[in-house]
Amino acid sequence: MDDRPDTLGGLRSSGWESRSVKDEIRQHAIARIRAGEPLFPSVLGYEETVIPQLEHAVLAGHDVVLLGERGQAKTRIIRGLTELLDEWMPIVAGSEINDDPYNPISRHAKDAIAEHGDDTPISWVHRDDRFGEKLATPDTSIADLIGEVDPIKVAEGRYLSDELTLHYGLVPRTNRGVFAINELPDLAERIQVGLLNVLEERDVQVRGYKVRLPLDVMLVASANPEDYTNRGRMITPLKDRFGAQIRTHYPLEVSTEIAIAEQEADIPGLDSSSDAEMPVVIPAFMKELIAVFSHVARGSSHINQRSGVSVRLTVSNLETLAAAAIRRALLLGEETAVPRVCDLDALIASTAGKIEIEALDEDRDGEVIDHLMRSAVLTAFKDMVSSEGVRQVAEAFDEDTVVNTGADVRVSDYTALLATEPSFAGPVAELLGDDDSPASVASAIEFILEGLHLSKRLNKDAVGSRAAYRGR
Q1: Which DSSP state fits 179?
Q2: How many CB atoms lie within 10 A of CB 188?
Q3: Fewer CB within 10 Å, N side or C side of the chain?
Q4: How far is CA 111 from each of CA 12, 93, 95, 99, rounded to the nearest angstrom?
Q5: How far apart are CA 245 and CA 66, in angstroms?
């Protein structure tokens, strides 16, 4: 920062050129696209669907509405737009609305330049500070968004007609930046009217003043489709002023859901370089099970699909599964925590608050979740274990063979089973690959047993957290 000019004259001498916020974003987007770099590196699963539409909107200089259910990275996309801004931007020092030193719009900035000329002090604003956000609520007012008279400034002796008595709202304070309105349909219609000029004429007007502020703002909004059409609505003139309406979606592939969960989940001990007291290893088949559960829920008639099944469900379930494994390992005195099927009961708590279950009997929530989990286990099992492996294990069970599983069964019991029942070796290798650690083997064996039961190849007697599997 030391080499950046601190006066208007120094800024002119440096060769800095003023450009609009949309032009900034457009130029940086062009550079990234040309270099083959993603515009939003942390947003996964939209490479062939949403991202191209966003690139079109950015290159066209459009304001955007992102339409989608909860947990579809709408807010992350909006906040990611700031990464397409210049890292530093000069403003007239002391300006509340980021006045362009070459094109001031506030009374403060105009007076400062008129008085000091090339000696006008200049400040620099980082791109992270050029983002404004408002969650649309019914009590949001025009004063919040646009501005209002500041009674304190009036009490100090200024006239009501003095522009300096204005207290600017969130939109003017985000001048030369990106302003986001989340859940826009929840904004009262009379307040939506106040945004019409911002989107079309690119200015704001505050009541009681003959003042026009030609703002330079990129406006981005998010909305839930259900709210968009029923509970709330965007007024037609406002919809008409947005240049692009882009529909988001949930991950289309299980692999994408897994990648997002791995990126977002905060699991102490999962990183091999972590100094956590309890190392955590989550086998690939358990991650797939968690992701498949969310996909199964999104297709279930027992779940309110208008509300959606957020990707946050997958993330929370993965974190909870790891926590359950850690607790079990601590109680058993084991050195490594590896989730098992017996840990899935813990997911009821992390699931119940994130889905809306449609059932006549409110007490059936647990049953619905359990049904979805069994469906997820069966789907993942069929996808990851070959039919030959299934046949070999099922045939090894005779009428007298019984295998006990549960949270209190130690890893050594499973490794002993593998030694006495070699038919498990093939399916275990399919699931784990080169990972032959005892804790992972135990997890794989539980998964195989549960999959065989759900495939109707084994019987299961369950009491609490304990289960006994036997031949049919």
Answers
A1: E
A2: 16
A3: N
A4: 19, 12, 11, 12
A5: 6
Residue with structure tokens 């290159």? 59
Give the dihedral sign, CA 312/314/319/323: positive
Higher pLDDT, 447 or 167: 447
Q: What share of the chain is helix, strand, coil (3-state, %, to 5)?
A: 50, 15, 35
Domains assigned to the chain: 8-247 (3.40.50.300), 254-471 (no CATH)
- What is the number of helices (H) and of strands (E) in the chain? 21, 12
Q: Say if residues 459 and 469 touch (Cβ distance below 8 Å).
A: yes
Q: What confidence tens digit (pLDDT) does each residue in 364-416 have?
A: 778 889 999 999 999 999 999 988 888 888 888 876 788 999 999 999 999 99
Beta carbons of 84 and 24 less than 8 angstroms apart: yes
Structure token digits, residue 421 = 């029942």
In contact, 321 and 347? CB cutoff 8 Å: yes
Q: What is the pLDDT of residue 269?
A: 76
The pLDDT assigned to 343 comes to 94
pTM value > 0.85:
yes
Residue 181 Cα distances to 24, 97, 220, 230, 344, angstroms: 21, 18, 7, 19, 38
For the residues of 102-138, what is the DSSP string, one character each?
Answer: SS--SHHHHHHHHHHGGG-BEEEEEGGGSEEEEE--T
The distance of Cα 325 from the centroid of its chain, to the nearest Å, equals: 25
**What is the 8-class DSSP label of residue 357?**
B
In terms of DSSP bridges, do strands 217-223 and 64-67 run parallel, antiparallel, or are they unpaired? parallel
The token pair at 450 is 């549960």
The rounded distance, in Å, linking the Cα atoms of 95 and 173 is 9
**Side chain identity at residue 6, one-letter code:** D
